[in-house]
TrEMBL record:
It is found in: Cell membrane. It comes from Demequina activiva. Its main location: membrane. This is Membrane protein. The keyword Transmembrane applies. Keywords: Cell membrane, Membrane, Transmembrane, Transmembrane helix. The chain crosses the membrane at residues 18-35, 55-75, 87-105, 111-131, 152-172, 178-195. It is a multi-pass membrane protein.
Length: 204
């Protein structure tokens, strides 16, 4: 009886990372743009930044970039400089792209439920892209990626617990019907991560 050797995981080439990070950031930013346009909320620091934009009137991108700054210390200490720099690039691109979408798209007529379903799925796919290329979408994503990398705890479960905290905190700023829709989107996002991002299942 022969034993088949497991496939050897090969690192992504630099050019693959260079394309995947902006692609993932674009998808993430589009989902966040949809949520902010309907007055919804996301989980994680993105949700914190969305709520901050509602409360202060400042743009989401600026707040998102600023609230992520303290998490880079954890990223450097625990995940290394390469992960940290890739995450900084991803967060910067998300902050930029969320401002760009509104210049080219008018989604004022979009149905909120459709918006949150699409946003949840597209954010989940965007997070998968950046995770698989050695980065995260910043903030709680850094913590989720660290716990999965070091302790084998699924990123989707960690992100889901933190998302729930942010969604509960949004009760003061988001109407109940929109909040209920946002929870649907958060569940779909975390299902995408939990189903598709497990240690040992991804090679390359």
């Amino acid at each position: 009886m022969s034993v088949v050797d497991p496939p050897i995981a090969e690192k992504h080439a630099v050019w693959e990372d260079a394309l995947a990070l902006p692609f993932g950031a674009f998808l993430l930013s589009f989902g966040l743009f949809l949520l902010s346009e309907i007055g919804g909320v996301s989980g994680g620091l993105a949700g914190v930044a969305i709520l901050g934009s509602y409360w202060t009137g400042f743009g989401f991108g600026v707040i998102f970039f600023v609230v992520n700054l303290p998490f880079y210390w954890l990223a450097v200490r625990r995940m290394g400089w390469a992960f940290t720099l890739k995450t900084l690039i991803t967060v910067s691109l998300i902050s930029l792209f969320t401002a760009v979408h509104g210049l080219y798209l008018d989604v004022s007529e979009i149905a909120p439920l459709y918006a949150v379903i699409f946003a949840g799925l597209v954010i989940g796919v965007g997070m998968l892209m950046v995770f698989r290329h050695g980065a995260s979408a910043g903030g709680f994503g850094i913590l989720a990626a660290y716990l999965q990398e070091r302790h084998g705890i699924r990123a989707g479960y960690v992100q889901g617990a933190l998302d729930l905290i942010v969604v509960i905190a949004s009760l003061a700023l988001v109407p109940l019907d929109i909040l209920a829709y946002s929870i649907v989107g958060a569940v779909l996002l975390n299902l995408v991560l939990a189903i598709n991002h497990r240690p040992g299942r991804y090679f390359g």
